[in-house]
Structure formats: C-alpha cells, structure tokens
Amino acid sequence: MPEFILVNPQVAPFVAHLQLNRPKELNALNLELMLEIKEALIQLDADPKVRAIVISGNERAFAAGADIKQMAGRTAMDMLKIDQFSTWDSIRKTKKPMIAAVSGFALGGGCELAMICDIIIASETAQFGQPEINIGIMPGAGGTQRLTRIVGKNKAMELVLTGTFISAQQAHYYGLANKVVPIEFYLSEAIKMATLIAEKSPLAVQLAKESVLRAYEMPLQEALYFERKNFYMLFASEDQKEGMAAFVEKRKPEFTGK
Is-catalytic flag, 109? Predict the structure, then answer.
C-alpha cells in the first residue's frame, strides 16, 4: 500500500483523485513519494474506468518543494546515479488528462508537478514559485522550461532568479492557473472540471491532449501535420460515429472509448 499518497479511483464518474499525503512535511516531494505518484498514475492510466485524474495536496500545501533533507548531502554523481527525473518523465507521459487542485504552497518541485498537469485549479490561498535559487541550486524538473513557455521569458526569469512567489491571482493573470476559486471549493471545482472532461470521448481527449502538448515541442508545420493525423485517426473510432449521430439526433452521446 502507498505510504505517502491516497488514491480514490472513483471520486466521481470516471474521475480518480490522487492526493499527496505528507502533511507534516507540507507534501515535500521525496523520492519515495514521487515513485508512488508514478506507479499510481501508470495504474490509473491503464484503468478503463478512469478518464480523468485530479491531483491535489491539502489546503495548506499542494507541495512545498523537494525534500531538501534528502538531497542536501548528495554529490553530482549521486544525483546522476539516482536518476530521479526518470520518474518525472514517466509522470509526464500520462495519457489521461490531469487536473491539479492547488491550495497553499506550490513551490519548487510542487510548482513543477502542477505544471506537468494539463489544467490548474487554484484556491485563493495558492502561492506558486521556483525558489531553488535561494538554496544555491536551480529548477531541475522543468521549472525553467515550462514556466517560460507559460508566463513568458521575462516573468519566468524574474521568478527563477529571485525565488519570489506569486499569488493565485497573479498565476491566473499570467496564464499559469486556469481558474481561482475560494479555498472551500478548489477541490470540488477541480473534480467538476475533470468530470466535464470525462464525459467526452476518451480517445478524442487523449489525442487532443497529445496534439496540444506537441504545440510546445514542434515547429508549427510539423505540429499541424501531427494534429491532422490525429484528427483523421478519430474517424476510425466508434465514438466519432456515436458523437456525430447523437448531434444529428439531438441527444446526449454515450461514449465508450472504442
């Protein structure tokens, strides 16, 4: 059984909830916790009863960063051998949409984990930042790359080089958070968003997610070609036939993921 996470595979129809559960450490991301997240996501990704995944911490912290005590005495060779970022790479490859429900601190690795997710719902208390510079290092799990692509070079440079935090409202302004809600609604709002996505065709959602992510990674013409292939591929699915028939017949579609 996982020690540092809680998993509810059916918090809502076709929606799973993965909760980070190291409250005394503000959900600091040690190696064991990250491995549990990786393994849980692999299982949820393979579960046909799950179509969307909500990832949260608690009201006080989504995750306040990496576990510095676990890292402090290590050498460069130690870090290379541990290869901790292979776990992050596996999380990034999750095919199903992931919605981060963020309250309190989302700092360092916590901010990076939120940015790996596809949508971020933030409580009014959320604070985002990459404060690694304050302890003599820099972001290593995508903070300099994803943050730059989301908020732009100048703001990313400010956050990474000063280590300062931004509020939920600022995160929304810069496009980091999709929505900001009162603290009592942040988790239910994320589940609501996940439920809305889970009602769609799982195949269409997966290929649409892939296509949006390729917009970050490819030149425009290559990304357009990738999008077009995924578009054509969906016409081989039963969900496409059902979705279009339901539209013509003015009824709600019943998608099966086939």
Answer: yes
**Distances from the Cα of 207 to the Cα of 17, 130, 239, angstroms:** 22, 31, 13
Q: Give Cβ neighbours of residue 228 (< 8 Å, ≥ 6 apart).
A: none
Cα gap 29→14, rounded to integer Å = 27
Pick from 171, 156, 175, 163: nearest CA to 124: 171
Residue 66 DSSP label: B
Catalytic residue among 112, 126, 129, 171: 112
For 134-175, what is the HEC assignment? HHCCCCCCCHHHHHHHHHCHHHHHHHHHHCCEEEHHHHHHCC
Write down the catalytic residue from 109, 110, 129, 243.
109
For 181-237, write each residue's pLDDT tens digit: 999 999 999 999 999 999 999 999 999 999 999 998 899 999 999 999 999 999 999
List the structure tokens of 118.
Answer: 């596809």
Told to judge if 132 belongs to the known catalytic residues of this protein, a careful annotator would answer: yes
State how far the Cα of 194 lies from the Cα of 196, in Å rounded to an integer. Answer: 5
Active-site residue flag, 112: yes
The domain at 5-198 falls in which architecture? Alpha-Beta Complex (3.90)
127-137: per-residue pLDDT in tens? Answer: 999 999 999 99
Ordered by start, the domain boundaries in the chain are 5-198, 202-248
User: What CATH class is the domain 202-248?
Assistant: mainly alpha
Out of 57, 64, 104, 132, the active site residue is 132
Neighbours of 235 (CB within 10 A): 9
- Number of helical H runs and strand E runs in the chain: 12, 10
Give the predicted TM-score (pTM) of the model: 0.94
